[in-house]
Design brief:
By secondary structure, the chain is α+β, with helices and mostly antiparallel strands. The protein is 53% helix and 12% strand. It is elongated and about 75 Å long.
Length: 149
């Protein structure tokens, strides 16, 4: 299924959601924040950003960031440093009216999704720790063999 989206209900959408292309003169592209928020609707399980749900939408973005350990995109911060970050609450509220065709995740479904991500990460880390322990054990055995020659 394709991701369909609509920006027409966003106040001043032409100014907020589109930016001149750096590649082609006279061509406009989706603003990076708008693009991230469109795709984030699938992630957080909201098919529309509204005044009523904008804070919850933002909270789910932050919860995802906490669980996965990273921002959703990179940009320059106020000091000119290139950083990973998640859209701000203000940026989410600037996109009230954005709508997509994604399936809505209930609070229960969202919580189950977050738990599954935590479990996946824990499993990944356990495997890595085991691999490192096995490598350490192999290195220790090699060292003993070397010393006992």
């Amino acid at each position: 299924m394709s991701l369909d989206w609509d920006l027409t209900d966003i106040e001043n959408s032409k100014e907020k959601c589109w930016t001149p292309s750096k590649k082609e003169e006279g061509v406009f592209e989706l603003h990076p924040i708008t693009n991230i928020l469109i795709w984030s609707t699938m992630l957080v399980g909201f098919n529309r950003i509204t005044e009523k749900n904008s804070s919850k939408f933002y909270r789910r973005l932050i919860e995802f960031e906490v669980v996965t350990g990273g921002g959703m995109f990179s940009s320059y911060d106020k000091d000119g440093e290139w950083v990973d970050r998640t859209p701000t609450l203000e940026e989410v509220k600037d996109h009230i009216g954005l709508s997509t065709n994604v399936y809505i995740k209930t609070s229960r479904q969202w919580t189950a999704y977050m738990v599954s991500l935590v479990k996946e990460e824990a499993t990944r880390r356990i495997r890595k720790y085991r691999e490192l322990a096995n490598e350490d054990e192999a290195a220790r055995k090699l060292k003993m063999l070397w010393l006992n020659r």
